[in-house]
Amino acid sequence: GSEATAEQGQEEEVEDRLKEHMDNLLDKSAKTRQAALQSLRLAFSSKTLSEFLLERRLMLTDSLEKCLKKGKGEEQALAGTVLTLLCLQMGSGPEGEEVFRSLKPLLVSVLTDSTASTGARQSCATALGMCCYIAAADLE
């Protein structure tokens, strides 16, 4: 009994930290947003969080969209990486497709923007390819 309680407490603590990082994606400071993206990248790549993310995918998608639109260089590159990991977490179902469909035009926009940094363009190209492979319903 006490092991299950301790494990549940740890899970709640992880979820609270993730919520805080997601909130920080909307911060005015680019450094705070970048730190939040790095933390989310680490969390998404080290643990399956699909249940937690399912409820928050729209808010997270909106936040990543803002980072891709308004951010520069490193922030855009990190947002592309986090988006790729989000697609992996959501999988090939309707939720993953929804995330991909909503951000695909923005990924293409950053990818084709000659003024965007090489890292941002590369990250968006990877996100576009991976998300398309995982979540695109349209075979073309």
From TrEMBL:
SUPFAM superfamilies: ARM repeat (SSF48371). Residues 5-139 form the Interferon-related developmental regulator N-terminal domain. InterPro entries: ARM-like, ARM-type_fold, IFRD, Interferon-rel_develop_reg_N. Belongs to the IFRD family. This is IFRD2 regulator. It comes from Dromas ardeola.
